[in-house]
Design goal:
The chain is of the alpha/beta class. Helices cover 40% and strands 9% of the residues.
């Protein structure tokens, strides 16, 4: 009744109605103008709803939105080693008694060094200004800039760590401003870009400068680098000075226990972390996998360099064994744009993708196969895999020893014995696992950046143990286990149950 009375009263006031209509119209136009998308406002390609997975595109946007700051290399802490050690003891003691999950609780606290621009922004700009120079090739014909992209894990991790906390999605790691609060220290030096794009002697000089800057830091001296993370993902990067930073946590493509790329005692699983290469092909998502399922008529596919050094010599033997067989496609090719498209098309038409060792036990081709929904056939006896403490690669790949793979007819007969239902299950697992190998900005939960910190959590207690042990040991008082001698990894055929 009250509502009806108000309506009757309003209907008897035509003047009030005429006055209200323009106000309503103005309010509508005001709301529409400010709530509708601005046609002149470009969307952020790195927004959380549309993560950027292209290194080149993400880097271009990063440099556009992050004007190069002036950096004199100040660490944010001019404290001496002894003072910093005391502060870190106090901070860790508070966490020990205040957090029932310390020292393995998330988020991991990381201090990112503010290194001089010549080690960071200047190198990123150097790549951005020169990556379109497609004539720049390595001695074996691979595009230099594509190799840099494949090993660009240092960019993806750093870009996430320095982003404003409001724009980050990962809950496993947080950047801290005070060194005494840190679990780990991140060194943002782009070792791969400098190796490939700088003149040799100039690069070595930059390495020596970086080494001095890093080892002069009080936090480094306190732990001898044991709690410092150093990206050296290309096997040639930082090579001339590695021996001085061998106690740091290295981010690597593999262990290479053959000794061709890393000296004995420099790398081992207890200390270092394996990270996947950045895939060279586009992700074949669930929709793509469904669309390509019936088109996968090739039994096994390989495209790449057929002649490699060291452990990669297995490729020539496999080519000799498999060439000309029914259902086999083997092509010579490199990682340029034409090669990328050819590899992508070939993988999406194949059930299995051959993944033999390259110059090192690992190969970027493994991760291209995974994101393409093509079941990898791994022929690399010394291979160590990324995030294997979290992921079970037996669910998505077939492991074959080199000795078996080169036996006449053995590999093809083995692959043909795998049933359709087993293949379907592995392909479903590939669809689930592929997200773990796609780098992006912003970094996504369960993406490779996230798994890095989940794996790091498992190392923290051991890092603290060896740091404190080294601080209290009397020199020459006892033999210290260096874990240098290790038995080589052994590969046996994956049992298909």
């Amino acid at each position: 009744m009250a509502l009806l009375g108000k309506q009757n009263q309003r209907s008897k006031s035509p003047f009030l109605l005429l006055l209200t209509l323009p106000l309503l119209a103005f309010s509508f136009l005001f709301f529409y103008h400010f709530s509708s998308p601005n046609p002149y406002q470009f969307p952020n390609p790195n927004s959380s709803s549309n993560p950027q997975t292209s290194f080149v595109a993400s880097l271009d946007h990063f440099l556009l939105t992050h004007p190069t700051p002036y950096s004199n290399g100040a660490t944010g802490s001019e404290k001496k080693e002894e003072e910093l050690d005391k502060l870190m003891f106090n901070s860790q003691t508070q966490r020990l008694y205040g957090d029932p999950h310390y020292p393995v609780a998330f988020p991991i606290k990381v201090y990112v060094y503010d290194m001089p621009n010549k080690f960071t922004y200047d190198l990123l700009s150097l790549f951005a200004k020169s990556y379109k120079d497609t004539s720049n090739l390595t001695s074996n014909g691979s595009p230099v800039h594509r190799l840099i992209e494949q090993h660009s894990i240092d960019y993806w991790l750093w870009a996430d760590l320095i982003a404003p906390e409001s724009e980050r999605l990962l809950k496993t790691v947080v950047r801290v401003d005070k060194q005494e609060e840190a679990d780990l220290f991140y060194i943002p030096f782009f070792t791969t870009i400098s190796f490939f794009l700088m003149e040799k002697q100039q690069c070595k000089a930059l390495y020596r400068e970086a080494l001095k800057w890093i080892t002069d830091q009080p936090a480094w001296k306190r732990s001898e680098g044991r709690d410092h993370i150093l990206p050296v993902h290309h096997p040639w990067s930082f090579k001339s000075v590695r021996r001085f930073v061998k106690k740091a946590i290295w981010l690597l493509p593999d262990m290479d226990s053959t000794g061709n790329w890393y000296k004995p005692g420099q790398v081992f699983l207890e200390k270092d972390l394996i990270l996947p290469y950045v895939p060279n092909v586009e992700l074949c998502d669930a929709k793509c996998l469904a669309a390509t399922e019936l088109k996968r008529t090739t039994l096994i596919f390989f495209r790449g360099r057929l002649k490699r050094n060291a452990g990669g010599k297995i490729r020539a033997k496999l080519v000799s064994e498999l060439s000309g067989a029914e259902g086999v496609v083997i092509e010579e090719g490199t990682a340029g744009e034409g090669g990328k498209l050819a590899a992508q098309n070939g993988m999406r038409k194949s059930i299995f993708c051959l993944s033999p060792a390259g110059d090192t036990p690992s190969s970027a081709r493994l991760f291209d196969a995974i994101v393409s929904g093509c079941i990898p056939v791994i022929v690399s006896d010394e291979l160590e895999l990324p995030f294997e403490g979290i992921l079970d690669y037996r669910k998505i790949a077939v492991f074959v020893s080199s000795g078996d793979a080169v036996q006449p007819g053995w590999l093809l007969n083995f692959l043909k014995s795998i049933t359709r239902s087993q293949i379907s299950e592995m392909r479903r697992n590939l669809a689930k696992y592929s997200r773990h190998f796609v780098y992006s900005n912003p970094a996504q939960p369960l993406g490779p950046e996230d798994l890095v910190w989940r794996m790091m959590a498992g190392k923290l207690v051991n890092i603290k143990l060896h740091t404190r042990r080294s601080q209290r040991l009397v020199k020459e008082s006892r033999s210290i286990c260096s874990c240098d001698c290790r038995r080589a990894n052994e590969t046996i055929p994956t049992p298909i149950l």
